[in-house]
DNA sequence: TCATCTAGCACCTTTGAAATGT
DNA sequence: AACATTTCAAAGGTGCTAGATG
């Protein structure tokens, strides 16, 4: 934004109201200094009442970019990858369903004595609704209107950096629902849409100071999923393992095998019908064999590779992958009729955004996996080069749902996509209310958070357009918006912040 | 007719309070 | 008395399925 102002790039047909607020870096510096610590502080500023169409976004390449030493690693990466291979589907129910695989991250690089909040929100991958048709996902039309965006605040928030770094941070209790009237504070998603969780690390003493704080956003390509009310992809993929036997993979099987709560379905033939329906393209000696329980399983070679690399630290990369080619697997995925999903029909360059976030590494195996969707689905072991790819990328924030995507400009790899619906109208006004869940002692996550969906009496959340620099951690500051802490009495929510129509965070804002 | 959604089911794990032991 | 460990029942999570809905 600064650069735009400086270079006169602001558009006349857009309304800007830019206000310099207290430099959060000074606050942080003060805070750190109180802690006796001295670290580099990032730069950020606040935008107030930004109501501009997305094309009025700043030129990211001209923005300064904050430094960050925070490293976030996705736990259970191997599991996520397995799901991702098939096409992750997350069940959402009216009463709320937990995620599986669950969101669990390992964090390092925090300041041990500084307090942080951990938040998760979900952003649509694109502007489309999908349907499962003939063994593959395809675009079924325009996406439903965005729901009030809720942000899940980890119950431990705020907690010192040492606490977060002590052990992996699990968002196990986060629940997804398709109930737009949900009163429990679950994350509301549309069925048959594609989403990606984003993890936010906010350095703040409490939720009230969040708006002055610096955010860092992390996301993992592997965690993209399609929300469904019932599993759509029933097909079973037969993957050859190094040991020579065939292993059947399907979403339900993966879940049953890996989720302890589904254990009851392993041995009691409860899913025999499904199994019967499932068509394995390849004859498999193991087909008739009783499926092995996870604890009995001998991980296939490639599987072991995953496990080995599962917790590879992801950090800012000095030798980064080119962002514009990022999202390699979306492009390659769609080449596989077996593999997930209709690739997100949004050109990568159009996602190149304003706001940026750190996209944590996608092992490059995925790319060839989808190219080799054939018989021997061997997952190549990763070499050093591959591991190099497995580094955090600060990628262009996914602006897939941002309007004005030119569906004609499909990047390479998107050519096989079904015809796309016309571009969607511009986003609605972003003005909204922010309600953070607080308990009596001001601790996030408490038992009785409040929210006020669709409220508009408060000014919109504004945030910093993160200065840009590729492959650096993104930082931004949130809003000058006053939190509506009054909320609606009697609504018991857990660890939830609700941000009216659009997520609190930059990406959705634009 | 079809795609999607819902509710109930049985079975399982998790959780936390109570009981017991050191 | 304080703490650690074990036990156990309730709560809650799971996919499956038939039927409902639009």
What does this structure look like?
The chain has 510 residues and is of the alpha+beta class. It is built from 12 helices and 22 strands. The strands form 5 sheets. Strands 2, 5, 8, 9, 13, 14, 15, 18, 19, 20, 21 and 22 form a 12-stranded mixed β-sheet that branches. Strand 16 and strand 17 form a beta hairpin. The longest helix has 11 residues. The protein is globular, with a radius of gyration of 22 Å. The protein binds a DNA duplex (22 and 22 nucleotides) through strand 3, strand 6, helix 5 and helix 6.
Helix/strand layout:
Blueprint: H1 2-7, H2 24-34, E1 71-74, H3 77-86, E2 89-91, E3 97-98, E4 104-108, E5 115-124, E6 128-133, E7 136-142, E8 150-153, E9 159-160, H4 161-166, E10 169-170, E11 175-177, E12 187-188, E13 194-203, E14 214-219, E15 225-228, E16 237-240, E17 246-249, H5 251-258, H6 272-277, H7 301-309, H8 328-333, H9 348-351, E18 356-359, H10 365-371, H11 384-389, E19 393-396, E20 434-436, E21 475-477, E22 496-499, H12 506-509
Parallel strand pairs: 2-15, 11-12, 14-18
Antiparallel strand pairs: 1-4, 3-11, 4-10, 5-8, 5-9, 5-13, 6-7, 8-22, 13-14, 13-15, 14-21, 16-17, 18-19, 20-22
Helix pairs in contact: 3-7
This protein binds a DNA duplex (22 and 22 nucleotides) through strand 3, strand 6, helix 5 and helix 6.
């Amino acid at each position: 934004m600064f650069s735009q102002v400086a270079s006169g790039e602001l558009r006349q047909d857009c309304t800007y109201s830019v206000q310099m607020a207290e430099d959060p870096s000074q606050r942080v510096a003060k805070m750190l200094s109180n802690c006796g610590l001295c670290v580099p502080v990032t730069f950020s500023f606040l935008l107030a009442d930004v109501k501009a169409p997305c094309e009025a976004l700043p030129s990211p390449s001209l923005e300064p970019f904050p430094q960050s030493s925070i490293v976030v690693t996705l736990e259970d990466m191997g599991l996520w990858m397995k799901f991702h291979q098939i096409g992750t589907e997350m069940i959402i129910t009216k009463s709320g369903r937990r995620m599986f695989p669950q969101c669990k991250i390992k964090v390092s690089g925090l300041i041990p004595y500084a307090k942080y909040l951990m938040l998760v929100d979900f952003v649509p991958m694109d502007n489309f609704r999908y349907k499962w048709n003939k063994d593959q996902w395809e675009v079924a039309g325009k996406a439903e209107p965005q729901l009030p965006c809720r942000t899940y605040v980890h119950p431990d928030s705020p907690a010192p950096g040492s606490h977060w770094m002590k052990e992996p941070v699990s968002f196990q209790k986060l629940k997804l629902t398709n109930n737009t009237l949900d009163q429990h504070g679950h994350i509301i998603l549309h069925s048959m849409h594609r989403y990606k969780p984003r993890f936010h690390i906010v350095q703040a003493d409490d939720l009230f100071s969040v708006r002055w704080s610096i955010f860092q956003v992390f996301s993992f390509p592997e965690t993209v999923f399609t929300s469904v009310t019932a599993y759509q992809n029933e097909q079973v993929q037969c993957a050859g393992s190094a040991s020579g036997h065939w292993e059947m993979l399907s979403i339900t099987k993966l879940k049953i095998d890996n989720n302890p709560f589904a254990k009851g379905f392993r041995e009691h033939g409860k899913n025999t019908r499904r199994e019967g329906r499932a068509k394995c393209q390849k004859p498999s000696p193991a087909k008739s064999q009783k499926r092995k329980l996870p604890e009995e399983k001998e991980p296939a070679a490639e599987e072991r590779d995953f496990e080995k690399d599962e917790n590879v630290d992801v950090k800012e990369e000095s030798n980064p992958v080119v962002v514009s080619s990022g999202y390699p697997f979306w492009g390659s995925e769609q080449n596989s009729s077996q593999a997930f999903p209709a690739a997100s029909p949004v050109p990568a360059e159009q996602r190149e955004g304003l706001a940026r976030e750190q996209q944590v590494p996608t092992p490059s195996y995925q790319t060839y996996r989808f190219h080799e969707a054939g018989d021997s689905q061997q997952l190549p072991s990763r070499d050093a080069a591959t591991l190099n790819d497995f580094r955090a990328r600060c990628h262009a924030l996914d602006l897939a749902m941002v309007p004005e995507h030119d569906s004609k400009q499909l990047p390479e790899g998107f050519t096989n996509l079904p015809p796309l619906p016309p571009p969607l109208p511009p986003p609605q006004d972003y003005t909204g209310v922010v309600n953070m869940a607080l308990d009596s002692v001001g601790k996030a996550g408490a038992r009785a958070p409040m929210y006020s969906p669709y409220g508009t009496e408060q000014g919109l959340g504004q945030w910093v357009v993160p200065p840009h620099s590729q492959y650096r951690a993104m930082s931004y500051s949130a809003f000058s918006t006053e939190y509506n802490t009054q909320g609606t009495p009697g609504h018991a929510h857990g660890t939830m912040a609700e941000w009216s129509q659009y997520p609190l965070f930059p990406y959705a804002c634009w």
